């Protein structure tokens, strides 16, 4: 069973077609990078997958659940990391994790929370620190731990490397690989061509709401990818 199956989804706002006939499929453990500039339709696509907006046409199925007709059930199988992960600043990493896991219907104890945070790459000394002192990279790791606690089958990332330094971006890549190794499908919406080349199995280029190209990441180098990206956006 596919972790995510999108078939010919389209949506328009005020006559402007933000997403136009988009189809893509992710298998369990697959990392897919949806590349495109601002306004290409990446965030709108994520919002449709999450059930925040309903497509005008087409279908979205997450782990066998129709996300259009049963958005809450589909969302229960999905974890979402926005560009800025919002945590309760006065709570520790462990407290944030146990709280958000409880909201998702899972009760976890402190030892399990520590293990999940470690699996997500958060250093042990930060487990009991208040989240208000965390960097963006540290907040993302807590967000990934929340996804692991939720036992999500699909992880959505919106511009995950924006604002990260090289070290934090490398840490995020390791976390994505770990999630993939657990069988979690990962869909990254980004315009960071070079970072995603390190972690994605497949790459898709979204332009004006349409998927204009798709490649296996292993078959294309960074320079070729940049050239292809610029060519497709200029077409």
Write up what this structure looks like:
The structure is a single chain. The chain is α/β, with parallel strands linked by helices and 235 residues long. It has two domains: 1-77 and 154-160 and 182-235, P-loop containing nucleotide triphosphate hydrolases (Rossmann fold); 82-151. It contains eight helices and ten strands. It has helices spanning 42-49, 71-75, 93-103, 110-119, 136-150, 166-181, 193-199, 222-234, and strands at 4-13, 16-26, 31-35, 57-62, 65-66, 78-81, 154-158, 185-190, 202-207, 210-216. A hairpin with a 2-residue loop joins strand 4 (57-62) and strand 5. Helix 3 packs parallel to helix 5. The model has no long low-confidence stretch (mean pLDDT 90).
Radius of gyration: 17 Å
Q: Remind me, CATH topology of the largest domain?
A: Rossmann fold
Helix-and-strand structural type: alpha/beta
Task: List the domain count as a whole number.
Answer: 2
Instruction: Kindly state the number of beta strands.
Output: 10
Question: So, CATH architecture of the largest domain?
Answer: 3-Layer(aba) Sandwich
Proportion of beta-strand residues: 25-35%
Summed up, the helix count is: 8
Low-confidence stretches: none
CATH superfamily of the largest domain: P-loop containing nucleotide triphosphate hydrolases
Helical residues, percent: 25-40%
N/C terminus separation? 35 Å
Order of helices and strands: EEEHEEHEHHHEHEHEEH
Assign an overall shape: globular
Q: Would you tell me the overall average pLDDT?
A: 90
| Highest-level CATH class of the largest domain | Alpha Beta
Spatial order of the strands forming the largest sheet = 6-7-8-3-9-10
Please describe the biggest sheet, giving its number of strands, its sense, and whether it closes into a barrel: 6 strands, mixed
């Amino acid at each position: 069973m596919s972790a995510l199956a999108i078939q010919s989804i389209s949506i328009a706002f005020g006559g402007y077609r933000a997403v136009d006939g988009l189809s893509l499929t992710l298998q369990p453990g697959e990392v897919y990078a949806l590349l495109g500039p601002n306004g290409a339709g990446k965030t709108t696509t994520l919002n449709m997958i999450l059930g925040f907006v309903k497509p005008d046409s087409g279908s979205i199925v997450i782990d066998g659940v129709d996300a259009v007709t049963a958005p809450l059930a589909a969302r229960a199988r999905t974890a979402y990391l926005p560009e800025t992960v919002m945590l309760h600043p006065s709570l520790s990493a462990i407290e944030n994790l146990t709280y958000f896991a409880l909201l998702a219907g899972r009760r976890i104890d402190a030892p399990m929370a520590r293990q999940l945070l470690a699996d997500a790459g958060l250093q042990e000394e930060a487990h009991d620190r208040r989240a208000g002192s965390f960097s963006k990279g540290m907040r993302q790791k807590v967000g990934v731990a929340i996804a692991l606690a939720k036992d999500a089958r699909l992880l959505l990332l919106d511009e995950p490397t924006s604002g990260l330094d090289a070290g934090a971006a490398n840490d995020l890549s390791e976390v994505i690989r770990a999630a993939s190794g657990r069988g979690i499908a990962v869909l990254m919406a980004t315009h960071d061509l070079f970072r995603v080349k390190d972690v994605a199995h497949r790459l898709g280029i979204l332009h004006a709401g349409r998927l204009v190209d798709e490649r296996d990441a292993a078959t294309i180098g960074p320079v070729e990818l940049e050239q292809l990206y610029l060519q497709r956006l200029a077409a």
